[in-house]
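User: Show me sequence and structure for the first protein, then do the same for the second.

Assistant: Starting with the first protein.
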Amino acid sequence: MSQQGKFLEAIADFTDRHGLIPSGRTVIAGISGGADSVAMLHALRAICDSRQRSWRLIAAHLNHRLRPDADGDEDFVRDLAGRWNLEFFSEKIDVRGLAGGDGIEDAARRARYDFFNRAAGKFNANIVAVAHHADDNVETVLHRIIRGTSLRGLAGIPARRAFGDGRTLVRPMLGVTRIQIEEYCHDRGLVWRTDSTNADTDLTRNFIRHELLPLVRRRLNPQAGQALLRLAEAARLAEDYLDPLAADLLKCSCRAQDDEHMVLDAEMLDSHAQAVRSRAVRQAMETLGAPMRDLTAGHFEDIDALFAPGAGQRSLQAGLAVNLPGGFIARRRGGAITISSGSQAPPADVFELPMGMPGEVKLPDGRCVRCETVAMDKDAFRKHISGHRSGLEMLDADKVAGPLICRSRQEGDSFVPLGGPGTRSVSDFLTDLKLGQAARQAVVCICDSRGIVYLAPLRIADRAKVSSATRHVLQIGIE
């Protein structure tokens, strides 16, 4: 088989093996005019008409207006599509103006994906093909190692990923190298445009390509590229194993969710290995639309610290929170981790749970309320008063009217606090204590038929206090 045939077979085999482009689909091919994208368009065109494929190809070019010859690139791709009898779609965008104070490369990347979405919408397509190849993958992995990355980043460039509204970005060239691409272009007599900025080693990617990798190959390992690709493949296999486990954990641990918040069971998450737990948190943030490119390994280490021993109890007093890019916040409140898409406080859990005497209930934030009735023991009561433990209270059981319920605070709640001069609204009572937002939200109301008997874990109602006439004690503990 000729070298040209081997190249086409490599593209076809990689595309089919990974299921990148199902039969009969319309494919938006992102074409810059460089050797990589020209070779991809030519190869896809050569294999698209087979019986099992029957693809419709659209050549799409975004003119970034970043270089003096940008219009020439657009004209070149338009002419190429015309000569190859392919439909063509292009747009011009002032990326430099779009960037504002942000980096040009990030602005260009955002502009490209927005453009691909518009192109896909225009042609009713859900597949977009781009020309990243094996050497791009090597450079990406090395860059991420140097910058710092997680296992997911170590896996390199994926062959396919979801983007936009139900669309898929595919990379059919990841199985071939830059040398193979240029040899294919030369053998087929294909011409391409050269981007002069590709030689600028002030750009990080170009420095890795033209200086760092050649030095590593020359001084340390001539097969460094293959070694990095093997490492990326091992990381990808590990990710493929861990991701479904994390998805199941997220599903089981999610207590509440809306467009801006997700409340997770910290105890359940903490019962799993950190590798799975961290991925579940990552998936939660992806679901809420967090800017994943801006999140570092350090951010996820800070989030994982919310699971440290004692974090749940400390969070009830002061609140534990991690500020994240894009205005996102991860908070620990008792037994719950709440991820919010803004700086506003997460909504308090709303609940109303019946309690037995004796009995116990588990609150939405993971804490447990237990109560039991015991005979009055004056010595035990004195010890309770002298060594009072937060969250544990003793009440006169005979002064409790009817069954108990444990519920969240409500507008208009009031009670007579132990030792207080009269009725106080719960809101004013908490304000006087100068509690933080997390501690205020951690307060629950334990009520009988007459109202609050214990504003847990802070104060019991005066009407339920133990006296010299008490015969039975109701012990209530929240932990």
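Switching to the second protein now.
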Amino acid sequence: MKIEDFAYIIKTEKSFDEAVVSVLKSVEQKGWSIFQIYDIKERLAAKGFEQKPLKIIEICSGKHANLFLNKNKLTSLCMPCKINVLEEDGKVKIIGINPIIISQFFPEVSKKEAEEVEKDIREIIDNAK
């Protein structure tokens, strides 16, 4: 398996903070909910570790979550979806999981249903770019 099978990765010319704000706006425009935002650099700094900027943004679509949970409660292991904004090698990247992988672990979730979620995630990321 290649990383591209698991994650959708784009580079942006925006600054780290601009990219985070852009993702948040894109999530709301798509009608998804923002659950939590984790500032990994800040949390690790409090423990004495140094990291480059990294924020993990947890998002959820009630429609998709409800559908998947009704098929198999263990799909909750893949929830909420995450979009990461990080700085690496002087570039800012926006990264999201490819939800199509969920249908490989949970056959009750059809590939078509997982593709719908993946389409939304990619649109959120592309619009945030």
